[in-house]
Amino acid sequence: MSLLVCDFPLVKTAITRLRDRNTEHTEFRRNVRYISRVLALEVSKNFSLNEYQVQTPLEATTGFRFEKEVILLPILRAGLGMLDGFLDIIPNAKAGHIGLQRNEVTLQPEKYYFKVPEIIDPIVIILDPMLATGGSASAAISKVKHLTTGKVYLISVISAPEGVKRVESDFPDIQIYTATLDRELNTKGYILPGLGDAGDRIFGT
Ligand code: PRP
Ligand code: URA
Q: Which-ligand-closest: CA of 74?
C-alpha cells in the first residue's frame, strides 16, 4: 500500500477548520500551512542521512546531514499554500513550480507552466492539497519522472479514493502522504465531504 494517512488528532481538528464553509482565507491558509508542517515531518522520516564528525565544546561526536537534496514542487495554484509549511520543516529545500489547471468540463489537467531546479538524484516532493480524480497529480508525476529516477512523493491534504487509485495504478512506486482520505467525488469531480475549491479558499478568490 503506497498511501499513508497522517490523521493525528491535531490534524483532524485543523482539517475541520478547512472543511467549515465559514472559515475565512486567513485561517484557512494558516491551517493548510500547519497541516503541511505535520506532513513534512512525517515524510522526512524517510530521508537517509550521512554521518560526519562534529566537534562539540567538549569532544568529537557523530553528526548527521541529509544524503540527498530535497526539491519541493507545488502544483499551482493551491499547492503554493503548502510550500511554506514544508519550508518551515525543510528550510534548505529547493522549489520548482508546476502550473496545471483542471478543465472544469472535461476534468482533464491543462499545463501552463513548468519550471523546476535541475534534478539529478534528489528527493522530489509534489505538493497539492487536493487529490480528486488524480489527473493533475498523474500529469505532474509523469513530467517529473521524465527528469529523474529519484524517489518521488505526492503529498495532499485531502484525497479521494478515485485519485489514490489512479495514481497507484499509473505509478505503483509513488508514495502518497495525505492528511485524510475522504469518501468520494461528486459528478463535478469535487471531493465529498471535502472543503470546496482549495485554490479559491487559500487565495480568497
Ligand atoms: C485543483 C487542485 C488540484 C486539482 C485536483 O486545482 O488543487 O490541482 O484541482 O483535481 P484532480 O485530481 O481531479 O486533477 P485546480 O485545477 O482547480 O487549479 P487551482 O489550484 O488553480 O485552483
Ligand atoms: N479541486 C479542489 O480544489 N477541490 C476538489 O474538491 C476537487 C478538486
A: 1
- pLDDT value for 121: 86
Cα(75) to centroid(ligand 1), Å: 8
CA–centroid distance, 202 to ligand 1, in Å, is 12
| 194 CB-near residues (< 8 Å, 6+ apart) | 19, 130, 158, 182
Q: Does the CB atom of residue 200 touch ligand 2 within 6 A? A: no
Interval between CA 112 and ligand 2 midpoint (Å): 18
The model carries a pTM of 0.96
CA of 3 to the centre of ligand 2 (A): 19
The atom of ligand 2 lying closest to the CA of 129 is 3
- Residue 146, CA distances (Å) to 105, 160, 200 in order: 28, 26, 31
| C-alpha to C-alpha distance for 34 and 26, rounded to whole angstroms | 12
Please tell me the predicted confidence (pLDDT) of residue 137: 97
Q: Give me the residues of the chain with pLDDT under 50, please.
A: none
50 vs 131: CA distance, rounded Å: 33
Query: What are the structural domains, with CATH classification, of the chain?
Result: 3-203 (3.40.50.2020)
Residue with the smallest CA separation from ligand 2 atom 7 is 190
pLDDT of 1 reads 56
Whole-number CA gyration radius for the chain: 17
